[in-house]
Write a structure and sequence with these properties.
With 1003 residues, the chain is an alpha/beta fold. The protein has 38 helices and 33 strands. Helix 24 (594-601) packs across helix 25 (603-619) and helix 25 (603-619) packs antiparallel against helix 26 (644-665).
Length: 1003
């Protein structure tokens, strides 16, 4: 019960409350009193019973609003905007009905205090305002600080000189005014500020010429364009100061809204505050000067690229370039080349300025000085293989490419570096080599290649994980403004626009394919018999239509199971959820340790297991339900069950498949399953909120909703996937799992910026000689202190960083900081103890690890003997050979070696002699409360100390906190210790003083 309460307490304080005054504490107290009755398994303010009661007895809430672009727009029934949509979502929990009261901004505090309004939204936080208003605990959203000018203004983007002397409009008491002041001071210009109450007043003043521009929070304006985007800041709900009734409900409704639908605010932001579809592209002064010269760019293209043929006029690349031409004002002329390589050569030699598609990550482009534009399309790479051939991409296969696919080959090799690629002059030669058995696969033409190839009779199309990101290639002799201008236009082009171009330019009709055939085979058409030519045209068109149908089938078929894949599941699930109002259970089921089975037994056995499970899962799926394989050992299920009890019974039966697989393959098999319940009718948690599925907004919207629900199921599955054991388990998604995921997402979103801005701090904890308490050394520890001064402790972020790999950056930061501290003390002529630094497996097993460590030490001119590397025993079992090799290299360099956490888990005595450690650190578990009183613990410690001493290894005990523990360690002949009895971890400045005040151990 205590654990559940602590979890609830953590969820409640996911984000800090801006108001830190005593009134805020009273508000929290009131929030606790507002708690609705709960059962033994949940902690809701808004239980289903409470929500129903709120709807039966709705309360009228008076919302004060002021005209503010994107947040509140319109009046009466026409009122809309970000805040209106957010209030509507909140009413789902509170049952509130709203009376919208238009006010002026300067009336807000008075109207809240006299009770004529209850709440408002859209206010930024300042300490001064917190004395007048009660702020919501969670942010209601974010707004930009954007400088708008008239759309027909000749002002350029970031035209600092033109900003000088401007008359700029601001909202009264606006924080954006202070931001603009700082921006102006930094860039050395001044402006005249005029203040207004409403957005409409500023827009009117701009239209009448009374101001030259105004600062607002959204990118979209009425008849304006944005010439500077300066900052992004949060805004909140506000009520009267001391409110203990409305704000607690807002806080809890927002909390549940974000736990259940983490992306809700971001979707609102995109809908109302980040609208760019009607925002003009604004160029800088330099870019505009270049455009004023009426630039002409020469476009190199290969004659073999069907989708870049200016004579056709409706091909994808040609249509895309024409769009760029219209939006940018740059004129293109087309320079045909004999091959793709000739196009690259033309860029290098300067006989062409751009080409339509290059792979932006190749070292070849950098070596030639070829520039890349912004990626405008990610093309999937598909292979042609033979039916029944067991090999899969990435298994050292031989794959054929044509010479036109140079960039495609580079993209493929970046995903499958172990495969062998062969290049052929034409697709016909590539195909013949495949039919002769010289190739395992050949690449199905990407959108820029010929559409006239067709897989052989025994061939099959195989989707891969490889993608070809297309970008414009730019000659090094082309003006740099060409890249910046075209990139801006591409950035302002929606992905859907690109998709539409691709679909509308695909030659699907018989007529369009016939025209293409005639155009490419004019000589044959003239010389042949008209009837024969017509038959050839119809035959070729039929072949291409069949190929398009095959492509669509492949797009929805998994290559391993030959059954439906994730894409097909999403499409069918969206349709199924629209058909009726039933209770569905959406599951993501994962085969545990599939990678281990593949490694030990081979991929053929792993694929066989995948197909076996897929067949059994399909047999247990009823009519009107779905089952699909999503790849990487993961299955998707959509079941209809009357209640949780029926679902549990079916899952027990499904888990019997694991026992069947264990007997069949003689390997331990178990499943981890995450479940998200899509309830019927008004209880459907996602449906009422966004309406994508239930409202029937279209297949694409429905698929996005199903994908979002799958994220919840994935979150639940991830919570049990690493729990260990061989027992199959399933877990329902709930708000606490969502809270943990939100916390993890928040940490991941902040981690890179936190490291850049110095929020991570290195602390040092002394290690002492137990006999005389002289300073033996210290252990470097990491702490995270946020901008608000709140400390985030390692157990909150280290496990996550170990999963996502960021721990490597953190380890290097600690090492660099420690070396810098040692160098400073050496330069000051002060004593320096050895410092132990924990190393994660992500860094320790990284290529060139030893060189990296020695390089950092050398850069700071730190003697290696002042550094100790701490590793854990579990790392040895990951790759024992690499582990020993790295330890030997560190030892030869003079760096000390420590084995950390010895005794935690199942320690091996072999660790005491096999790896040559200088120090063994006994885990603090030996001294845990109650343990130190057991005689057996001290027998074990004494024995370990004696064995280590005979082997020439020192023992250091962690977690020493009492004098009694110290005396028993001395009696056990343990020489060194670390713990709060001697000192807690301290920052570098405090540790400086500690070292100065204590004597170092005599060596």
């Amino acid at each position: 019960m205590l654990r559940k309460f602590l979890t609830f307490f953590l969820c409640l304080f996911l984000l800090p409350l801006p108001d830190v005054s005593p009134a805020a504490s009273r508000e929290e107290s009131s929030a606790k009193n507002f708690t609705a009755p709960v059962d033994g398994t949940s902690f809701h303010f808004f239980s289903p019973e409470a929500i129903l009661a709120n709807y039966r007895k709705p309360r009228i809430i008076r919302v004060g609003y002021f005209d503010q672009h994107g947040v509140f727009e319109g009046e009466g029934e026409q009122l809309s905007g970000y805040a209106v949509a957010l209030f509507t979502a909140i009413s789902r929990y509170t049952g509130w009905e709203y009376e919208w009261v238009k006010i002026r901004f300067d009336e807000l505090a008075q109207r809240l205090n006299d009770g004529s309004i209850d709440i408002s939204c859209g206010l930024s936080f300042t300490p001064e305002r917190s004395k007048v208003f009660t702020y919501s605990r969670l942010r209601a959203g974010y707004e930009n600080t954007c400088l708008h000018v008239a759309r027909d203004s000749d002002m350029y983007y970031m035209d600092i000189e033109a900003f000088n002397g401007m008359r700029i409009g601001f909202f009264n008491d606006s924080l954006q005014y202070g931001v603009m002041e700082q921006f102006a001071a930094y860039h050395g210009f001044s402006f005249q500020a005029l203040f207004f109450e409403e957005s409409s007043e500023m827009a009117q003043a701009l239209a009448e010429g009374r101001i030259d521009g105004y600062v607002d929070g959204v990118l979209r304006g009425k008849g304006t364009k944005v010439v500077a985007t300066i900052s992004t800041d949060p805004f909140f709900f506000v009520t009267r100061k001391g409110d203990m009734e409305i704000m607690p409900q807002i806080n809890e409704a927002m909390r549940q809204l974000l736990l259940n639908h983490p992306s809700f605010l971001s979707r609102l932001y995109d809908s109302y505050l980040n609208v760019t579809s009607d925002v003009p592209v604004v160029f800088t002064r330099s870019e505009s000067r270049w455009l004023a010269t009426s630039p002409v760019l020469r476009v190199a293209y290969s004659r073999d690229q069907d989708m870049m043929d200016p004579t056709q006029g409706s091909t994808f690349f040609y249509t895309f370039l024409k769009m760029l031409e219209r939006q940018s004002g740059i004129r293109f002329i087309f320079v045909p080349q004999d091959s793709y390589d000739d196009c690259l050569r033309a860029l290098v030699e300067g006989t062409a300025d751009i080409m339509t598609d290059v792979y932006p990550k190749t070292s070849f482009l950098r070596s030639q000085g070829i520039l890349c534009g912004k990626i405008f399309y990610n093309a999937p790479i598909t292979l042609v293989g033979k039916i029944g051939k067991p090999r899969a991409p990435g298994q050292k296969c031989t794959v054929g490419f044509t010479k036109e696919m140079r960039s495609v080959r580079q993209a493929y090799q970046s995903t499958y570096p172990d495969d062998i690629t062969k290049v052929f002059a034409s697709s016909e030669e590539c195909r013949k080599a495949f039919e002769k058995g010289e190739l395992d696969f050949y690449v199905w033409p990407y959108p820029g290649s010929s559409l006239w190839d067709e897989p052989p009779q025994d061939g099959v199309l195989l989707p891969t994980s490889a993608m070809y990101p297309m970008a414009l290639g730019v000659s090094p002799q082309t003006s740099p403004y060409a890249v910046s201008v075209l990139d801006k236009v591409i950035s302002a082009t929606n992905t859907s626009t690109i998709d539409t171009m691709l679909l509308t330019t695909a030659p699907e009709s018989l007529l369009s394919m016939s025209k293409r055939f005639v155009r490419r085979h004019v000589l044959e058409s003239l010389l042949g018999v008209a009837l024969l030519v017509g038959l050839l045209i119809l035959f070729a068109a039929w072949r291409n239509r069949r190929r398009l149908a095959d492509l669509r089938a492949v797009a929805f078929t998994d290559p391993v199971t030959r059954g439906p894949n994730r894409g097909k599941f999403l499409m069918d699930a969206a349709r199924l959820l629209q058909e009726g109002e039933r209770r569905f259970y959406l599951c993501t089921l994962n085969i545990r340790k599939l990678k281990l089975i593949n490694r030990v037994c081979g991929l053929r056995t792993g694929d066989s297991l995948i197909r076996f499970c897929n067949r059994e899962f399909t047999l247990r799926t009823r009519h009107g339900e779905l089952a699909a394989y999503s790849g990487s050992g993961r299955y998707l299920l959509l079941w209809h069950c009357a209640d949780d009890a029926e679902f549990g019974q079916r899952m027990t039966e499904l888990f019997s498949v694991a026992e069947m697989a264990r007997k069949l393959y003689e390997r331990p098999v178990s499943f981890a399953c995450g479940v998200y319940v899509i309830r019927e009718g008004a209880e459907a948690e996602g449906a009422d909120l966004d309406g994508d599925i239930k409202a029937g907004k279209g297949a694409r919207d429905g698929e996005r909703s199903v994908a979002r629900y799958l994220l919840y199921a994935d979150t639940a599955e991830a919570s049990i996937a690493s729990a260990g054991g061989y027992r199959s388990q399933f877990l329902f998604y709930n708000e606490f799992i969502g809270a943990r995921q939100l916390k993890a997402n928040d940490i991941e979103n902040r981690m890179v910026r936190a490291l850049e801005q110095g929020e991570f701090l290195v602390f040092l904890q002394p290690q002492v000689c137990l006999a005389d308490r002289r300073l033996h050394g210290a252990e470097a520890l990491i702490r995270w202190q946020g901008p608000d001064g709140k400390m985030i402790y390692p157990d909150e972020f280290i496990p996550l960083f170990e999963q996502n790999g960021f721990i490597r950056e953190l380890d290097l930061f600690v090492l660099d900081t420690v070396c810098s501290w040692i160098r400073r003390r050496l330069d000051d002529g002060k004593k320096v103890p050895p410092i132990s630094i924990n190393q994660s497996k992500a860094l320790f097993f990284h290529a060139n690890y030893v060189e990296t460590v020695l390089g950092i030490a050398s850069r700071h001119d730190v003697p290696p003997h002042l550094l100790h590397v701490e590793v854990t025993e579990s790392m040895a079992w990951l790759d024992e050979e690499a582990f020993i090799h790295t330890l030997d290299a560190l030892r030869r360099a003079g760096i000390g070696l420590s084995l950390d956490d010895f005794g935690k888990g199942y320690s091996s005595m072999a660790m005491l002699h096999s790896f040559g450690f200088d120090t063994i650190k006994l885990d603090r578990a030996f001294l845990a409360p109650g343990q130190e009183k057991q005689r057996s613990v001290w027998i074990i410690i004494s024995s370990l100390v004696d064995m280590a001493r005979r082997l020439g290894i020192e023992i250091l005990c962690e977690g020493v906190e009492t004098e009694d523990q110290l005396q028993k360690l001395l009696a056990s002949h343990c020489k060194y210790g670390q713990g709060y009895l001697f000192s807690p971890p301290m920052d570098l400045e405090a540790f400086d003083a500690y070292v100065d005040a204590h004597e170092l151990e005599r060596k």
